[in-house]
Amino acid sequence: MAATMQNTVKSAPAADEPAALKGRIVLSIDAMGGDRGPAAVVAGLAKSAQKNSKIGFIVHGPKAELEPLIAKRKLGDRCVIRDAEETVTMDAKPAWVMRHGRGTSMQSALDSVRNGEADVCVSCGNTGALMALAMLRLRKLDGVNRPAIACLWPSRSPQGFNIMLDVGADIRADQTDLLQYALMGVSYARAGLNVAHPRVGLLNVGTEEHKGRAELKVAHELIESAANASDFEFVGFVEGSDLPSSRVDVIVTDGFSGNIALKTGEGTATLIRELLREAFGHSFLSRMAAVLAMTSLRRLSKKIDPRRVNGGVFMGLNGTVIKSHGSADATGVSAAVKLAFQLADSGFRKRVEARLATASATVQDQLNNE
Amino acid sequence: MAATMQNTVKSAPAADEPAALKGRIVLSIDAMGGDRGPAAVVAGLAKSAQKNSKIGFIVHGPKAELEPLIAKRKLGDRCVIRDAEETVTMDAKPAWVMRHGRGTSMQSALDSVRNGEADVCVSCGNTGALMALAMLRLRKLDGVNRPAIACLWPSRSPQGFNIMLDVGADIRADQTDLLQYALMGVSYARAGLNVAHPRVGLLNVGTEEHKGRAELKVAHELIESAANASDFEFVGFVEGSDLPSSRVDVIVTDGFSGNIALKTGEGTATLIRELLREAFGHSFLSRMAAVLAMTSLRRLSKKIDPRRVNGGVFMGLNGTVIKSHGSADATGVSAAVKLAFQLADSGFRKRVEARLATASATVQDQLNNE
After folding, report:
1. Which of B213, B271, B280 lies at the smallest CB-CB distance from A293?
2. Same fold? B1-144+316-346, B145-308
3. Architecture of domain A150-307
């Protein structure tokens, strides 16, 4: 159902609401807009609630639809429902959503972060619409020109994942944007992956300093000189082959290259998964082998399961938003919720703000001196 | 050994040389510069010569070193040696090679194409140096601003591979370059992969027509209007996830994005291969399984074996150059030689030239009308 101008979002919580949320880290959940509907989202919340008693949810969507789902999962004592009749569809254009967002579960979910009721918003809705609406409702952080979307990348690093940003918030990024992405990425690595002294690399077509575009050379200098004060290690230029490596924890790039790298990696992994499945189905012997190897294959499959790295984090806004994959099932939603909890619990947003403010003063000095 | 100014390349073939090459498709081989030295290169030539009696080779490098290798492989009746004492090292800078290329096996190999003795040049040497020297010795085709490097990508398409270009000749490409890449890619798909009516896609961050950078929108129009006359199908924008898909045969992009996609795909495949190996080595049962699945795994491994897609094709020059991977072993070199033979045999170079000439007239009209 598309959004209309009618506003069905309640602006203030009912008197009995705080009980469910009291003393908990509160996450704002857009229950609508995913391919599998609100049932998969609520099932994901239940999975997370069971493992972690410190999470509470404000769930946004049509009350009549959500109430029975939440009752079935026995989540009544952990959830507050915020009635929002309208849904932003998967094919809604960003410009349309910015005009017609009122009354949608997406806008309602963002507003819970905007007005301070919740720390982080999670949505399975369409990326372009969510970013446009997030920029409108939450506004960019002071001094940030381009927000970024950060994703996790299965890797050889000890924490099992690397962070890459921007993977598609904006198709352009200049040197200052790239520096800010580095700083945001460092905060994310600390808060989300517990990496104390993150290693940052700048994506390029070669590792020699003379390679690549002009803005990359300037960004190289800016990030290098910010490393000491901001307590991270700059490893210099990295290449596409380093994305899953243990050389680096945070990979910085513009949203065009980042999006192409992300989708290429996903596409390659999918092709190999399909070929593997065919290889094991090919003969009686190979099917036998698959049975014997089941445990090992499951372990591998779990390691590269895209559902476990579900959650693009929107950064550079006054509030954190996590975009869960549109096709996420309960496991996927639960992974996004876990990440949201970690970021909220660690005071991620305040840390990013502080880091950007300190660094931007230094950079301004440096750019002025050049 | 680095190149010096002394020129040890013989400029004219000896009187007895043509016998070995007579009636054969002649390939010019730079035997030096690869990580495994000339022995691996000559072993690769022997592999190809055994399968295909129509190939002859002009092999460039230090005669004293090459002669025993060629004698050992019994290749004397298929090879002509061109003595060149100097080697372009893996870390040689393009600018250095352009000044000091004389006397190197790389320049000597390119010159055999330049003076018409050979149809295609194959080298394992360093990419940047090879491209710089190729541009200097062969010159760009009339009307081509930026040459491109095309690579093969294992895919779901019937021919088993898709073509992507540019993967790193230049970090920039404007709309006209992208159109030319499309046309070169179509010729390559016909000559190298026997695809009669290739499907071309333009790499972007989304498939909707309003997405991406300005030059991509113009390139979309240009390629679309060239499709009919040049007898290919334009499928529009494609994403990173489409690279290994069966939606498309030729993927067009700038050298920056193309290089990042290529290396990301390779990195992802390597990570999964390593994880698979670990999974199968993990326990007694899984090692048993690996034994049982051997045939199937070998089949899969062959399908995604990077040695089988060895060979970046330099296009847009007066002559075709194939860059074989620096670490190529005999199998890898033989794959590059096979590709070189196919392109030479099909009159690839003349076809590209004709196609670009026809299309450039049309495009000029179109750009003038806008």
Report:
1. B280
2. yes
3. 3-Layer(aba) Sandwich (3.40)
For every residue of B254-299, DSSP letters joined together read -HHHHHHHHHHHHHHHHHHHHHHHHHHHSSHHHHHHHHHTHHHHHH
> One-letter amino acid identity for B239?
E
**Three-class secondary structure of residue A252 per DSSP:** strand
% of chain B exceeding 70 in pLDDT: 84
Minimum Cα–Cα distance from B276: chain A residue: A300
By Cβ distance, the residue of B264, B295, B299 closest to A265 is B264
What CATH class has B1-144+316-346? alpha beta
List, in sequence order, every residue forming a beta bridge with A30; answer none if it has no partner.
A60, A123
Residue A205 CB partners (closer than 8 Å, separation 6+): A211, A212, A239, B168, B171, B255, B256, B259, B260
Answer positive or negative: Cα dihedral of B66, B68, B69, B71: positive
Q: What are phi and psi of A92, to 5 degrees?
A: -65, 135
Mean pLDDT of chain B: 87
Quote the CA–CA distance of B194 and B197 in Å, as a whole number. 9
Helices A330-345, A175-193: crossing angle, 10 deg rounding: 100
Residue B12 has pLDDT above 50, yes or no: no
Q: Smallest CA–CA separation between A163 and chain B, in Å?
A: 14
Enter the CATH code of domain A1-144+316-347. 3.40.718.10
Average pLDDT, chain A: 87
Whose tokens are 């290798």? That residue is B69
Quick one: closest CA in A to B292, which residue? A289
pLDDT tens digits for range B92-110: 888 889 899 999 999 999 9
User: What's the pLDDT score for residue B3?
Assistant: 44
Please state whether A139 falls in left (phi above 0), alpha (psi between -120 and 50) or beta: left
Give the residue from chain B lying closest to A272, CA to CA.
B269
The CB density around residue A214, as the number of other CB atoms within 10 Å, is: 9
pLDDT tens for B124-133 read 998 889 999 9
**B300/A275 Cβ within 8 A:** yes
Cβ pair B271:A296 closer than 8 A: no
Domain boundaries, chain A: 1-144+316-347, 150-307
- Residue (of A195, A190, A184) closest to A157 by Cα position: A195
- Report how far residue A171's alpha carbon sits from residue A174's, in angstroms, rounded to the nearest whole number: 11
pLDDT tens per residue across span B288-299:
666 666 666 666
Q: Which residues of A touch B283 (CB under 8 A)?
A: 295-296
- Tens of pLDDT, residue by residue over B220-276, are 999 999 998 888 999 999 999 999 999 999 999 999 999 999 999 888 888 877 877
* Spans in chain A with pLDDT lower than 50: 1-15
Token code pair at residue A95: 């410009």
Beta-carbon count within 10 A of A83 CB: 17
Second-level CATH architecture of B145-308: 3-Layer(aba) Sandwich (3.40)
Sign of CA dihedral B65, B67, B71, B74: positive
A15-65 tens-digit pLDDT: 455 778 888 999 999 999 888 999 999 999 999 999 999 999 999 999 999
The reported pLDDT for the residue numbered A351 is: 86
**Burial level of A304, CB count in 10 A (0-12/13-18/19+)?**
middle
Query: In a mutagenesis test of the A interface, which of B203, B254, B274, B292 is the best target, namely the one with the most A β-carbons within 10 Å?
Result: B292
Q: Which of B126, B43, B116, B125 is nearest to B79 (CA)?
A: B43
> What pLDDT is attached to residue B10?
42
Sequence-ordered alpha helix ranges (H) in A122-169: 127-138
Q: What is the pLDDT of residue B349?
A: 85
Is B186 or B7 the better-scoring residue by pLDDT?
Answer: B186
Residue B306 in this model has a pLDDT that exceeds 60: no
Provide the token pair at B344: 């030479």
Complex-level ipTM beyond the 0.90 threshold? no
